Amino acid sequence: MSVINAQKHYTNNPFYMISKEAIIKRFISYVTIDTESDPTSESTPSTEKQWDLANKLAEELKAIGMHDVSIDENAYIMATLPSNVDHHVPTIGFISHFDTSPDFTGANVKPQIVENYHGGDLLLNKEENIVLSPGYFEDLRLYIGQTLITTDGTTLLGADDKAGICEIVSAMEYLINHPEIKHGTIRVGFTPDEEIGRGAHKFDVEKFNADWAYTMDGSEIGELEYENFNAAGAVVKVKGKIVHPGYAKGKLVNSMYIATEFINSLPKFETPEHTSGYQGFFHLCDIKGEVEETVLQYIIRDHDTGHFEARKEVMVKLANELNSQYGREVIVVDIKDQYYNMKEKIEPVMHIVDIAEEAMKQLDIKPIIKAIRGGTDGSQLSYMGLPCPNIFAGGHNFHGRYEYVPVESMIKATEVICKIAELTALKQ
Predict the structure, then answer these.
(1) What three-state secondary structure class fits 126?
(2) What does the pLDDT read at residue 428?
(3) Distances in whole angstroms, Cα of residue 112 to Cα of each of 9, 122, 373
(4) What is the distance, to the nearest Å, from the Cα of residue 70 to the centroid of all Cα atoms in its chain?
(5) Pairing mode, if any, of strands 92-97 and 186-191?
(6) Which residues does 340 contact at the CB level (< 8 Å), separation at least 6?
(7) Helix, strand or coil, per DSSP, at residue 273
(8) Which among 351, 388, 42 has a CA at the least distance from the CA of 228?
(9) What does pLDDT average to in each consecutive run of 10 residues of the chain (428 residues)?
(10) Torsion sign across C-alpha atoms 327, 328, 330, 332
């Protein structure tokens, strides 16, 4: 593993010359700032530390020459690249989020750069013997010979979605520096708290004022998505009774045992580790338990609306059955919808997907059109009146210590943004 040389590196694309060195430098400057969000917080952003990157991004957008740069009281950032053509072109947008997942720590990220990846195991952390292996993560083999940015095995990386931000800023800078590339008005937006399902909650669609947009928040190079999960979060509170264990017979009720009954009564194989494609799931993502009370945090996901509603009913019915069994209310389930499948809102305007697909093809990228096993800000924004498909940002193994991103994928994503801008102007 070695840090990239300080010389200039460029892609061999005949239309664009994106600096590899600049992409790496910008990306590392973002991921080394801790922006982990917090689902237990009611504020926006949910953590004060998200302001550190938000303020940096606002200043950086000004520095590269973007217009109308704003950052509001909730840390939502917007900026404009004005049109450089004299005919009407739809205003398009590009959006990413700057928070990282609370599933794994994002503090003290120490990125490692692997040049000319050889295709074998990568030792991320010698002391803890943490290995990133293509034997387990097969996608690594797609990137033999490329430059990878990995973690040191003790944190996540933050490519979700700081890679997307890096690509958007880099593309805007490139278009500003190359006015010969014709485009209409482009809006960019960066959001907090996407990882906890609130990224678009306070996004001002009217202020953004775009005809459509794209989130740069996908994974593998070529991904292009306009279907996503319907999503809900469930908080399951289990009530027990604490009594001194020496005098507990017939009196003590251990909430952790009841919580275990609830967990084991849900479909065993309808969990993330047992599902793929269009299959939905229940995911237990947090437990806090004592005898008196245990709290379970679940997420519920399904692409099909009917199945999604049925999953929520399963949890409520199970709680009611356990309450009946114990003769009192021992379980309370609070379910809140988070976002919905954007397919319904994208299909009437499929030309916006077609433009992104054509952009990839012109850049010799094979489009991979599939449903997202997750969600993006775009799913909510589509229901708020801003149709918003999702495009690859390049990262893999999000939310954990094995996260990595190929630099070449980030460069290609930057080129896709530029090409979409060009094609949108040409098609009018």
Answers:
(1) coil
(2) 64
(3) 18, 11, 28
(4) 23
(5) parallel
(6) 230, 231, 305, 379, 383
(7) helix
(8) 388
(9) 38 70 98 96 97 98 98 98 96 98 96 97 96 97 97 97 98 97 97 92 97 96 95 96 93 96 97 96 96 97 96 98 96 94 95 97 96 86 96 96 98 98 89
(10) positive
- Tokens 């600049």 locate to 22
CA nearest neighbour of 292 among 330, 251, 254: 254
HSE-CB for 182 with a 13 A CA cutoff: 11
Q: How is residue 238 annotated by DSSP?
A: E
Selection from 1, 295, 257 nearest residue 124 by Cα: 1
SS3 label, residue 200: coil
> What are the tokens at 73?
């009281």
The secondary structure of residue 222, as a DSSP letter, is: T
Which residues touch 179 (CB under 8 Å, ≥6 apart)? 84
The token duo for 414 is 């930057």
**Residue 316 C-alpha from the chain's centroid:** 29
DSSP per-residue codes, 391-427? EE---BSTTSTT-EEEHHHHHHHHHHHHHHHHHHHHT
Which pLDDT value is given to residue 377?
A: 87
Q: Is the distance from CB of 71 to CB of 53 less than 8 angstroms?
A: no
Residue 253 identity: V
Query: Contact at 8 Å (CB) between 387 and 345?
Result: yes
- The pLDDT, as a whole number, for residue 53 is 98
Tell me if residue 122 falls in helix, strand or coil. strand
| Per-residue confidence (pLDDT) for residue 43, from 0 to 100 | 97
Structural contact between residues 204 and 187, judged by C-beta atoms closer than 8 angstroms = no
Say which residue the tokens 């997907």 belong to: 353
Identify the sign of the CA torsion 213, 342, 106, 140.
negative
Backbone angles phi, psi at 143, to 5 degrees: -120, 25
User: What whole-number distance in Å separates Cα of residue 299 and Cα of residue 280?
Assistant: 11
Contacts of 427 (CB under 8 A, 6+ apart): 355
DSSP state of 99: -
Spatial contact of 182 and 85, defined as CB atoms under 8 Å apart: yes
Query: Which H/E stretch holds residue 95?
Result: strand 92-97
- CB distance 189 to 69 below 8 Å: no
Measured in degrees and rounded to the nearest 5, phi and psi for residue 302 equal -165, 140
Catalytic residues: 99, 194
Tokens of 240: 């027990």
Q: At what angle do helices 407-426 and 351-362 cross, to 10 degrees?
A: 120
